[in-house]
Write a structure and sequence with these properties.
By secondary structure, this protein is mainly α. Helices cover 51% and strands 4% of the residues. A two-stranded antiparallel sheet has the order 1-2.
Length: 143
């Protein structure tokens, strides 16, 4: 459902959120190692998220990515929208341009229900909501 960039972005921001709870900043190498993502591609994603003020970054030897106090309230939907936009929440499940309520595709109603449920979950879930289970080792960010 998400683009590969969005998958890496979500996983990276959850990892960054978990480290930010302890006041840590994390470098790109550490992030990519922990989430199993390619470094160059992930760096571009995180630079974009930083430009859009979803996450923060500091350059230099003691720099890295982190969430400030305001960003700790960031919801998953903010990450998705920053990377993939709203297409997931408005587009057709089969990619048909003219799909609508009046001219639906074969899966329109079923996909709409799934899409709405996903959007609701992303709107309600903050990055920090997901860090506790990660820190306890109950969930993971890479295979």
């Amino acid at each position: 459902m998400f683009s590969k960039a969005c998958e890496y972005g979500i996983r990276a921001t959850i990892y960054i959120a978990s480290k930010s709870r302890n006041g840590e900043r994390v470098g790109i190498k550490d992030i990519c190692n922990e989430i199993g993502a390619p470094e160059h591609f992930t760096a571009k994603i995180l630079q974009n998220l930083s430009r859009m003020k979803v996450i923060s970054s500091v350059k230099g030897p003691h720099g890295g990515f982190y969430l400030d106090e305001r960003a700790k309230k960031i919801k998953l939907i903010d990450v998705v929208r920053a990377i993939d936009g709203d297409k997931l929440f408005t587009g057709c499940g089969l990619g048909i341009k003219e799909c609508s309520e009046t001219k639906p595709c074969p899966i329109h109603n079923e996909f709409k229900a799934i899409r709405n449920t996903l959007q609701d979950m992303l709107e309600k879930t903050s990055l920090t909501d997901l860090t506790e289970d990660l820190e306890k080792g109950l969930v993971f960010l890479k295979r």
